[in-house]
Amino acid sequence: MVLCVLTAVFAYALAPDDSRNANQMHLSVHSKSPGFTVKMLTIPSEVNEQNPISVFFFGRKNADSEIPISGYEELGDGIVITEYTSDGSPGLQKEYAADLFPEAASGSEIATHYISEKKFLLGTDKYGRDLLSRMLIGIRISLAIGFVAVFISLLVGITLGAVAGYFGGKVDAAIMWLINVTWSIPTLLLVIAITLALGKGFWQVFIAVGLTMWVEVARVVRGQVMGVKQMQYVTAARALGYTDFRIIFRHILPNALAPVIIISAANFAGAILIESGLSFLGIGAQPPMPSWGGIIKDHYAYIILGKPYLAIIPGLAIMSLVTAFMLIGNALRDALDVKN
């Protein structure tokens, strides 16, 4: 968990491809296996100075051109490269003059400063993008959707559950009707409906997932509040003239939130799975923004084409992250169990 959070924060610092959304494409080296290595010629472009803080958190606006090459020949005032081809056939030859390269005046200086060997540790996707970089940056989506969705579900669920449990009567009946109606709708179907109403996008998915996860929180909080409000200290608070909302939020809720903490861990894991499912369906995070579910969507056909790792790697990442949150939920349940 800590490793995942640190990875999300320092994603662009860790990613081999630090361009925004790790979207540097090399179509000639698409779908390569992990550990693939190729020589790369970088042709720089004029880009305005970028804010280092923005680059650290959001990546570099990279307009440089990267060309995979299989060989090159130095000239006096330039260089001739042979483009890489995946089938082993002779690649196209192109000549580049030294004036395209600010820090080079000859072919040898171009080779020294602008040709490097690039290794793709997890291989490349079907567009030739570095899969490791896409995975590192994609973890931000999964963690962000978990945090925001759980926050929204807690905000709505605790409020409605506490009001229903404390006041009872018609207020409780109305809120329980809303809970039951929401609960009767399949989660994925409700998320799709909300997403289509709000539009496809990053923040819309956060809101949609959060608005579907408050029901369980509300039911648990309602039950807890109905039990705690019978305690003597609540009766004493009423006798002292405290307002209902002060009694709820200052006296009842602090003694009724232990189960909610456990549910939050499970909801976090559920939010990650829902977001992955939405991205797989094409209504989650939109390209070129990397998402683990989106990566699986792009490559699930490769499972039968002899390159299953393109879909298995993000699948294992989702499974590991969800398992981590479920284990935390189990540990919290044991730690908060007064019988132990």
UniProtKB/TrEMBL annotation:
Residues 139-329 form the ABC transmembrane type-1 domain. The keyword Cell membrane applies. The keyword Zinc does not apply. Pfam families: BPD_transp_1 (PF00528). Gene3D superfamilies: MetI-like (1.10.3720.10). It is found in: Cell membrane. SUPFAM superfamilies: MetI-like (SSF161098). InterPro entries: BP-dependent_transpt_permease (IPR050366), MetI-like (IPR000515), MetI-like_sf (IPR035906). It comes from the Bacteria. Keywords: Cell membrane, Membrane, Transmembrane, Transmembrane helix, Transport. GO terms for cellular component: plasma membrane. One of its GO terms (biological process) is transmembrane transport. The chain crosses the membrane at residues 143-167, 174-196, 202-221, 256-283, 309-332. Its main location: membrane. It is a multi-pass membrane protein. PANTHER family: D,D-DIPEPTIDE TRANSPORT SYSTEM PERMEASE PROTEIN DDPC-RELATED (PTHR43386:SF1), OLIGOPEPTIDE TRANSPORT SYSTEM PERMEASE PROTEIN APPC (PTHR43386). Belongs to the binding-protein-dependent transport system permease family. This is Peptide transporter. It comes from Constantimarinum furrinae. The lineage of its organism: Bacteria, Pseudomonadati, Bacteroidota, Flavobacteriia, Flavobacteriales.
